[in-house]
Amino acid sequence: MPRFRWITTACFATLAVVPSPAHSLQEYAPGDVAEVGTIRGAITFRGEVPAARMVKITADPEVCGVEPRFTSDLLVTDESYGVKNVVIWLSDIQEGKGWEPTAEPRTLNQKGCTFIPRVLVVPAGERFFAVNSDGILHNLHTRGGENRPINKAQPGFLERLPLKLRYPDIVRVECDAHDWMIAWIVVAAHPYYAVTESDGSFRLENVPPGTFTMQVWHERLGTLTREVTVLADAEVSVDIEYPAGP
Amino acid sequence: MRTLQPVIGALAAVTFLVSPAQTIGQESPWRDGTPDPSVVESGRRLYLRKCAFCHGAGGRGDGSVSRYVFPKPRDLSMGLFKIRSTPTGGLPTDPDLFKTLSRGLPGTTMPSWSNLSTMQRWQLVSYIKTFSDRFENEMDLELQPITIGSPKPPYPESVASGQRLFLQAQCWTCHGMKGKGDGPSSHTLVDDWDYPIVPADLTTSRNWRGGYQPEDVYRSIAVGIGGTPMPSFSDALTEDQLWDIVNYLLWNIGS
Predict the structure, then answer these.
(1) A158 and B235: CB-CB below 8 Å?
(2) CA separation (Å) from B190 to A7, A194, A214, B186, B199?
(3) Closest partner residue to A137 among B173, B192, B224, by Cβ?
(4) Global pTM?
(5) How crowded is the C-beta side of A200, counted as CA atoms within 13 Å?
(6) What average pLDDT does the segment A92-99 reach?
């Protein structure tokens, strides 16, 4: 019976050593929400913003252009120091609204050799589409994390490519054919996710009353955590500034 | 040249028909995926003697000679392997790993380990899988090997269709118009560890990582090469179209 003994040992070892993956912690039950409040705020950063990186267009100049382009992974407005493309979500909410139906499926568009939007929120396990508006070869190459890394080609003739990501996570997507193309797919366990506008503002609506952990994530500035208390029929304002340190 | 075309076609067809069958990559000796711990332990000892100087004692691709070789030895801790018969995102099967050990990876410093006994290679397979917890965590995810049908005979129409598809699907963006691996995007490619990587030179089929039998080439295009920029084309191309590209690569560019 050595084989069975080994299996048993392995099972216990797995329980003891391997931390539970984050997705197993996400329990969320959508339902009717009667009393609700709103969280609104802005994410700012007053530190030094690195200069935009110049990329030389090497492939497909007829679509991507011939002039060098400038890309930046940190977009901060001059006036209010608001940061664009910050993801905000309530990580421990267990009950609340369901996903609002969308007229069109959610899409990650590849247009002008850029991913649009740069940060896309999709419900976990729901189908969405990669759209190729350029008519040239792009590919969707994801990295690590909770979901299995995939790399799918989307040649110019394949306008829509269905995709599905199963576990809540923030997945980096790249196009290898055009190395400046980067997007982030936020795979959401529930609808209480927001992405900041260019002035850094965000809103989370129809939140049931309670105290929640709010996660704030930016691709370059990293993750912050705040506690937020929501009251029924009230709007709570949460402004967060990323530390300016190195 | 035109008069020679039928002769070349006939030769191609004959070679195609007599090409040797796959002889390696049998069924794993433990079909339920759980080898005896003594097997894993034998694999560990063998790994430290034979593999660790490239792949590192911890399997992270950081062995003592790793800095001197290109492409760099694979980091085995992420469950990402170049050669697998499962769709993109899947783990390799045991026979996939056995096959890679037995054949090596042509064009790299990974040699064939067919000098080891069959059992020793299976022991190594069982140990290599312990470097990534994906092999335990994702056992419930059903990702079966893709079905690879019978190769399409390399008639001129198929080869010509393959050439058109090579252009339309823009394989040349990385591999170059003549398949030399010098396409416009070839200089900016990195692997999943951000190390620079070059596209395959398709004119030297003996160096193709996944092998050069028609079924091997089909698999490489259909599921991609794990951890590298080579993507899976199975969403974009039909089975028939994939075989046409295989024929173009084998009987035009790579021959």
Answers:
(1) yes
(2) 39, 32, 35, 9, 10
(3) B173
(4) 0.87
(5) 22
(6) 94
